[in-house]
Amino acid sequence: MIADVLTDAGTRMDRAVEAAKDDFATVRTGRANPQLFQRIMVDYYGSPTPLAQLASLNNPEARTLVINPYDKSALKAIEQAIRDAPNLGANPTNDGTIVRVTMPELTEERRKEFVKLVRAKAEDAKVHVRGIRRKAKDDLDALKSDIGEDELGRAEKELDALTRAHVDQIDEALKRKEAELLEV
């Protein structure tokens, strides 16, 4: 029973770390990256649709992204969705067949804003991991009558180690992203 609780908590913490890393990827650095556009929702015939389902994304140059829609009638909607996306600062151009997005150079001030944003996302992920820990601790406490105090103590130490390992993974991903953002 203890192993089930710890395994479930570990799996959920792994997913939280992966979600944090995916979230970090949506914050732009100096380069154009198709992952920046993963969360952009396009109003396609009245329903919000992820951009990746409407078009192919190519990265021909370091700061340029070419979006080739599968349905050419969605060009205007894609262009508008990119223009309205927060924290991108991109200005797309439409030539009738593709949308070309050139990412502007990041200023020092903008880089620092992005570092703050990434730190906030990392803190949210850590709070989520600690929430998972709290739930697992409650589940372990519910098993207290079935298992002994010693087993419960060992399980809690194991849970704390698991939590610490996942928080460290988030911190490591944060350090990498900060270095990437501050690199000129």
From TrEMBL:
Domain Ribosome recycling factor: start-end pairs: 21-182
Keyword check for Cytoplasm: yes
Pfam families registered for this protein in UniProt: RRF
Keyword Protein biosynthesis included in the entry's annotation: yes
Gene3D superfamilies in the record: 3.30.1360.40, Ribosome-recycling factor (1.10.132.20)
InterPro entries in the record: Ribosome_recyc_fac, Ribosome_recyc_fac_dom, RRF_sf
Subcellular location: Cytoplasm
Primary residence: cytoplasm
Entry keyword set: Cytoplasm, Protein biosynthesis
Family, as annotated: Belongs to the RRF family.
Cited function: Responsible for the release of ribosomes from messenger RNA at the termination of protein biosynthesis. May increase the efficiency of translation by recycling ribosomes from one round of translation to another.
Name of this chain's protein: Ribosome-recycling factor
The species this protein was found in: Microbacterium schleiferi
Origin organism lineage: Bacteria, Bacillati, Actinomycetota, Actinomycetes, Micrococcales
Gene that specifies this protein: frr
